Amino acid sequence: DENEETWLTGGKDRTQKNENRGSTVAEIERLAKQRDERRAQQDRVKKQKEMEKQIDPGNPNYQFLTMIRDYQVQIDYRPLRMTDAVADNKITVCVRKRPLNKREINKKEIEVVTVPNKDHLIVHQPQVKVDLTKYLENQKFRFDYAFDENAGNDMVYKFTAQPLVRTIFEQGNATCFAYGQTGSGKTHTMGGEFTGKNQNTAAGIYALAASDVFRLLSRDFKHLKLTVGCCFFEIYGGKVFDLLKNKSILRVLEDKNGQVQIVGLQEEQVMDDQEVLDVIRRGTDQRTAGTTSANANSSRSHAVFQIVLRKGLKQWGKFSLIDLAGNERGVDTAAADRQTRQEGAEINKSLLALKECIRAMSRNSSHVPFRASKLTLVLRDSFMGEKARTCMIAMISPGMGSCEHTLNTLRYADRVKELGADENGVS
Ligand code: ADP
Ligand code: MG
Questions:
Q1: Looking at ligand 1, which residue's alpha carbon is closest to its atom 16?
Q2: Which stretches are tagged as biased composition: Basic and acidic residues (predicted)?
Q3: Which of 95, 97, 98, when mutated, tests ligand 1's pocket best, judged by the most ligand atoms within 8 Å of its CB?
Q4: pLDDT at residue 190, as a whole number
């Protein structure tokens, strides 16, 4: 790369290095950072060119595309990097933008989402005035982290679920939610990356978290002599189904002490990464089995994967990882048949309850409305106690056709943790 050579031996950098040998490490880091950023920028330009080739001026959205490009060229991109600091939050809310998929590219969809830096995201909402002039409404959002289409599951994990693993060894409850419309990447993130129909369960947040649990178990917390178990269940239409026990229906009981129990829930003892992968695979297969339209069904249920630490029989700490039902029904209230409408209402109710529970948790409120839905009832302990920590990853599809759903997802996430728009964060 000729450009890079010229740039690396540039006079200014060399003088700085000679002047102060002590700052060499910082200097190398700074250069690496600049190089990463430049590469990301080059990737982006290349992708944009490829995309523009596909979209001819006859495309009705061509004007919007050029307006978005005009906006983007003014941005100074500074994407999140693996080496960036990980914050220590009680509640973390972040957003992940997936790349356009083949189907969207074939339909010549245009991307309407830009991630300029590590914690901001912009939606370029296409609008048309009464006189038919087209314009963009550029809406900015800020979260704890913003993952762009180049971020892999390893990076998402590092900033979301990984910082929560220690919590369960310290007798707390950790919880991580994947929220978003169907097709936005929830299962890809939690269950493992897809290559076509094949899912690599080892490259998902369930498995990555379990792997770190084993690491800490045999290292920093060896003296505690804890054991590890896994549960995997689904909540569908307000009922709990055990994914490790042929989807048998389970009852949820709240005892006199306020403890919530799922009666008869299977808990598999696991000794290593391989055994966890087996459990994930079994549960995932159950989740999508037995329906004519497997995808449609799984998009209407919340899947809960739990890693339970025990000392003897006593529960020590619990990590709940949840692949939530698609949130798109929050808008489509005019669904066709009665059952679908009811399902939609149930999902709405649980997602609203979830938001309220996390908000109550962030205020340290003694009143957490966890009884408002089955989802929040079974996750009661996730919202209670000093040591509880939670993280939500809002997933979004980048295409223009998903714009409304994307904005709904972002507004929801914004309400879960109100960080406020930072006007200075985006150039
Ligand atoms: P959801 O569970 O939210 O309905 P999926 O996880 O099933 O969505 O993702 C829908 C499709 O998009 C899958 O084919 C998946 O492989 C792809 N996908 C999702 N997120 C990403 C990503 N970050 N990178 C590449 N492909 C992705
Ligand atoms: Mg899914």
A1: 194
A2: 11-20, 27-55
A3: 98
A4: 98
- Give the DSSP letter of residue 150: T
User: Which ipTM score applies to this complex?
Assistant: 0.99
Closest residue by CA, ligand 1 atom 17 = 185
Which positions ≥6 away from 279 have C-beta within 8 Å? Answer: 230, 232, 244, 268, 270
Q: Are 125 and 139 in contact (CB under 8 A)?
A: yes
Whether 11 has a pLDDT exceeding 50, the answer reads no
Task: Locate the ligand 1 atom nearest the alpha carbon of residue 193 and give its number.
Answer: 16
The model carries a pTM of 0.87
Closest residue by Cα to atom 22, ligand 1, is: 98
How high is the pLDDT of residue 46?
79
Contacts by residues 62-69 (CB-CB < 8 Å, ≥ 24 positions apart): 63/134, 64/110, 64/112, 64/124, 64/126, 64/134, 64/136, 64/400, 65/110, 67/124, 67/134, 67/135, 67/136, 68/110, 68/111, 68/112, 68/114, 68/124, 68/136
pLDDT per position as a tens digit, 139-175: 999 999 999 999 999 999 999 999 999 999 999 999 9
Specify the ligand 1 atom closest to the Cα of 184. Answer: 3
